[in-house]
Amino acid sequence: MLVVKDVSLSFGNVPVLAQMQLQAQPGELCVLMGANGAGKSTLLRTIAGEYKHYHGSILLNGQELHHMPVDAQARQRAVLSQQLNLQMPFTVAEVAAMGRYAYRAAERLYDKEIITYALKLLQVYDLKDRSYPTLSGGQQQRVQMARVLAQLLEAPDLHAMDYTGKKMLLLDEPVTGMDILHQQLALQLAVQLSRQGVLVIAVLHDFQLAAAYAQHIFLLKNGHVYAQGPVDTVLSPPHIKHCFGVDVSVLHHSLCAYPLVVTNTAATLFSSSALQATNAY
Amino acid sequence: MKRISLSILTTALVLVMIIAIGTGAMHMSPWQVIGILLKGIGIQLPVTYTEQMPAVLWMIRLPRVVLAVIIGAGLGVSGAALQGLFRNPLADPGLIGISAGASLTAAMLIVLHVFLPFMVSGSIFQTYAQNIITFLGAMLTVLIVFRMSVHGGRPIVSVMLLSGIAINALCSAFTGLMTYVADNEQLRNITFWTLGSLGGATWQTVLAVLPFVLIPVLMLPRMASALNVFALGEQEAMHSGVQVNRLKTQLIIYATMAVAAGVAVAGIIGFIGLVVPHIIRQFTGPDHHILIPSAALAGAILLTVADLLCRTIIAPAELPVGIITAITGAPVFIWLILKEKRLIAV
């Protein structure tokens, strides 16, 4: 379980997180949403241990993040960052193997099986000997996901263990750049992991993906949680109007198990005078 | 793969050493070299050689070749480690100020040593003290360059190269000042330093450099796994459990150590640290488990060959080895810049 209590963080004089309160339970896929600059990525990175100058407290399974050594943190939580810039020509298999770094020798007996399993699950096993920088953006993203999965797992089978209270997975826009099939696969994998007790927190921008896969949504605005709960209560037109400034309708369709968020019309975003000016030109 | 590349390089190093030992004003065949060397440890081979040969080999040739091997290995591992630290194949001990800082400190020691009472000249302790001070000077410059090049938590390569230029300029200005106030003999010493030469090799210089190179060569391979993960980026390395700050500090200390001691006794020998990891990567890939030991061996081979060339091309006179490595290394550097243009532009 993850408890974020009264966490504030500023960069220079700019406050990014303001008295943030958040609780996430294992077994749920939690999704952070919000406009650009709402603090989603910063919150995720703070939980990932990147910013040490936060005020307040972050408890991971009852332990304060401050007091955990880096390698102990890495054995409990894996992070998939938004921007990865690996230029050295490591092979795909070597990149995935980097996920096992934090484990001690005794815990590394099944490294090879775990890495193979992770590569196969992300459908990049046949690329395993390819040089990472030569892959496409979406393939690279899947390889990184395999690396993160290899860091998380303790056995070469997703369903072999219950990870409740042991593991946390942080995903910062994990599906950006992936094609629609691999977006679905990646998020279904995240759901599978959460069912095995992994605490999964993902930053997502896509309402459709969030509505389809999230069990709990945190809607962020100006560095604090504006609304939270299951998809149906959080993704309402007033909430979205308030956080994103866009008029939307939430539709339900008999063929679709989740609500569909559609924009009413993009043209209203521009003032009529601006539009007239464009037309006159 | 690892075994193969390491054994090929080891064999090549032994061959190159035997040829280098045998070459010079008094020629010795490889068999004679092996014969004399084995006699030293009590094994008699049926090889004939003249009476002067063992003396020349033990007192002149061997210390020089061994010094080239040690300094070359230091430059090789240092280059590999720095390229890992900066996550860029253009990092080199010469470009980021290690060599300039070391040679400024060395020049200051030459000119100002009369004011330093603990520098009793001639003893091995003096050489050790000199090496340690040179190391500290080099350390300072590389820390400045690294600090300057970090922006938003990661080192920016173009800034790193620019800071390197700035620090190199500053160091050479002060080295120039030292040259200006130096007397005739000091001047000769300083010139020798800035050009780089293994001509002054004795068993004492070998002993003085050995620990400074041996420690990094033994310690850096232990950091290979962490260095591999570090290639993902500083934050990702931290997420994966690497103690990033400790790794960076250790890398800088070891890389500087391996270069600075060499500079203290042989002056600036450029481009070995840049070129060697590159050549090795072409064959073994970027895995630091193989890269670091291979870079040590290949650096040793390259410097031994360069030194062999510089004392045979215009024999009986001798070129400073720094000139040879710069003449051959700089074009490789130019080729690298053209190849890596895309990455530098970021």
Automatic annotation (TrEMBL), chain A:
Keywords: ATP-binding, Nucleotide-binding, Translocase, Transport. InterPro entries: AAA+_ATPase (IPR003593), ABC_transporter-like_ATP-bd (IPR003439), ABC_transporter-like_CS (IPR017871), P-loop_NTPase (IPR027417). SUPFAM superfamilies: P-loop containing nucleoside triphosphate hydrolases. PROSITE patterns: ABC_TRANSPORTER_1, ABC_TRANSPORTER_2. The lineage of its organism: Bacteria, Pseudomonadati, Bacteroidota, Chitinophagia, Chitinophagales. It holds the Pfam family ABC_tran. The keyword Nucleus does not apply. Gene3D superfamilies: P-loop containing nucleotide triphosphate hydrolases. This is Iron complex transport system ATP-binding protein. One of its GO terms (molecular function) is ATP binding. Part of the ABC transporter complex HmuTUV involved in hemin import. Responsible for energy coupling to the transport system. CDD domains: ABC_Iron-Siderophores_B12_Hemin. Residues 2-247 form the ABC transporter domain.
UniProtKB/TrEMBL annotation, chain B:
InterPro entries: ABC_BtuC-like, ABC_transptr_permease_BtuC. The chain crosses the membrane at residues 59-82, 94-116, 128-146, 158-181, 201-220, 251-276, 288-309, 321-338. This is Iron complex transport system permease protein. GO terms for cellular component: plasma membrane. It comes from the Bacteria. It holds the Pfam family FecCD. Keywords: Cell membrane, Membrane, Transmembrane, Transmembrane helix, Transport. It is a multi-pass membrane protein. GO terms for biological process: siderophore-iron import into cell. The keyword Protease does not apply. Coiled coil: none annotated. GO terms for molecular function: transmembrane transporter activity. The keyword Protease does not apply. It comes from Chitinophaga rupis. Its main location: membrane. Belongs to the binding-protein-dependent transport system permease family. FecCD subfamily. It is found in: Cell membrane.
